[in-house]
Amino acid sequence: MIFVRKGRRRFVEAVEGFETAVRDRDESGSQRGFRRIHRTYQGAGAEELTEGAGRLAALLPDVPAGPRGIVAVIVGACVERGADPLRCAPAVVAGLAEALDAAGEFCERWEASGGGDLPEPDDGDPAPGLVDRVGPRAAFAWWTLPRFEMASVAMLNHRAVRSGLDAAERARLLGALDTVQKATGHPFRCLEYALRVLDDEPVVALHRSSGTCYKLRMSGIGDNFQLHTLLADALIGGGHLAGRAPSAQEAAVCRDAPGQVPTTGAFNLVTPEGEWVWNEGAPADIPVVDGVRLLVIDPPPYERSWQAGRFFPGMTGELVLERVLGAEESARWFAGVGAGKP
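Now predict its structure.
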């Protein structure tokens, strides 16, 4: 008769074996442990995932450069299945910061050594010729940056993680990312947008043709397509403005429901100076005036349709109408608004 030990936690045991091998610098043991993590991950429950992900996150600084990004992706996958993001995020974000800094060195060394088409990271390690050309730290940083993007976005899907990033740290990450994107022409759009997501952010929307103003508060909105739909739901669906309101499903998929559904734009969103606020952009593009994001609503110049939904499917979006501003307060806001541009 075969007896199975009750309560055996195969995923955590696999993590423990991997930890030991990494700290003992046992390469073959690390590879065996890593394969075991993969085999046991799917069957792990929430408690196992939380413990295992936390231990893997703490281990990240000791993991060799090659597999470090893959381990970060596993941590992110555990968080997506219910592991504690606050426990895992500091190590993942620290790994991201290191990868971005070293990727900046990669850009400099790549250009200094002749430039040319950039190598495309794959599931393996960077080729020896690339390592010789730019150095191991820079080569592995470029190779693992897409993996750290995936892992970091999994963390940033959670408002508590985003709130834990102070302004200086967020600015430093965005600055390092901007350096890499400009130097390589390679977009890391998901990471950029995730780092720019606003939470508990006040916005005043000015409806030009009616002269009415609305104070709203937004959180977790990934792009302006999502913002546009939720704004139409709040103002048209709420009975404050005329026009086509999004359906309940169109609004729901922009908040927390899964999937995407077709929708049609109700507005043209512009800055107080009259520049268009493109749907493809992010709410952080809206300028700040007197401490709030100030947005002007004009009629759409032509019909625009898109798939309503969330830019980050794992991130809850929210746009709440706090109050309709009175005539005197509205007039003060409109006093700083220029004429609309065609």
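The longest strand covers residues 212-219.
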